[in-house]
UniProtKB/TrEMBL annotation, chain A:
Coiled coil: none annotated. This is Biogenesis of lysosome- organelles complex 1 subunit 2. It comes from the Eukaryota. Belongs to the BLOC1S2 family. Residues 1-69 are annotated as: Disordered. InterPro entries: BLOC1_su2.
UniProtKB/TrEMBL annotation, chain B:
It is found in: Lysosome membrane. Keywords: Lysosome, Membrane. The keyword Cytoplasm does not apply. The gene is BORCS7. Its main location: membrane. It comes from Characodon lateralis. InterPro entries: BORCS7. This is BLOC-1-related complex subunit 7. Belongs to the BORCS7 family.
């Protein structure tokens, strides 16, 4: 019977310990400064890290939950991690965006170049049309020049024929004169 | 992309498990981002477009030079036509 009483006391002690552990967790989560913990960890039973172990009081083995003490700068580390992750991902995506921007700028410059060439082509086309119109107004004169040139050629041929005939006539005259 | 460390590790602290999990999740996110960029084939297409642009630039410059010469010749023809008309 004494052993039964001891077992009951052990069970009571076991039932009380998890509540103490949870109380310690709540205290840590609320942001209670745990500076003393780093100096004297084994002193405060509520804030000390409880290692998984067995409680073999009264011959009953129990296991305790392993609880890590919350670090005071965990939030800062987490935010730092997410910020750096965001910066890295942004950099990965920015590289492709920069390539697209480069291609866009190249396209814009090419379009400007084509616009300049278009302006030059338009000017050339207008000038050539004016020139064609002016040459059309000069066409009668050019036709007259062609006719004159043909007549001059015909006159030249006639002159050559006359020259040849006159030379023949001269030769015959001299021959007759010698007789 | 599933983490290879999905099996629970016994004998490892919660902190270690958490840090491993966070590391694996970060790696998965990075791999996902790179796969998305790789699947879009944007690098290949942009590189090909840049190469074509460089090749085209030479032809564009030659064409522009020819057009400028043509404009000069047209101007000379105009001067000659005006001289003919005056005479």
């Amino acid at each position: 019977m004494a052993a039964t009483g001891d077992e009951a006391a052990a069970m009571d002690s076991i039932s009380r310990e998890p509540t103490a552990v949870s109380a310690g967790l709540v205290t840590a989560a609320s942001g209670v400064p745990q500076a003393e913990r780093s100096d004297d960890p084994p002193e405060t039973p509520s804030s000390a890290p409880k290692k998984p172990g067995t409680n073999s009081d009264g011959g009953v083995e129990t296991a305790e939950e392993a609880v890590e003490p919350a670090e005071p700068d965990i939030d800062e580390l987490c935010s730092d991690m997410f910020e750096k992750m965001a910066i890295f991902l942004q950099g990965e995506l920015t590289a492709t965006c920069e390539d697209y921007l480069l291609l866009e700028n190249m396209n814009k410059l090419t379009s400007l170049k084509y616009m300049e060439m278009k302006d030059i082509s338009v000017n050339i086309s207008r000038n050539l049309q004016d020139l064609n119109n002016k040459y059309a107004s000069l066409q009668p004169y050019l036709d007259q020049i062609n006719k004159i040139e043909e007549q001059v050629s015909a006159l030249e041929q006639a002159a050559y024929k006359l020259d040849a005939y006159s030379k023949k006539l001269e030769a015959r005259f001299k021959k007759l004169e010698k007789r | 992309m599933a983490s290879a460390d999905s099996q629970p590790r016994f004998g490892q602290s919660v902190k270690g498990l958490l840090s491993d999990k966070v590391g694996s999740c970060s790696g998965d996110v990075i791999a996902l981002t790179r796969q998305v960029l790789k699947g879009s084939r944007s690098q290949e297409l942009l590189g090909q477009a840049a190469r074509n642009m460089v090749i085209q630039e030479d032809a564009i410059l030659h064409s522009e030079d020819s057009l400028r010469k043509m404009s000069i010749i047209t101007t000379h023809l105009q001067y000659q036509q005006e001289a003919i008309q005056k005479k």
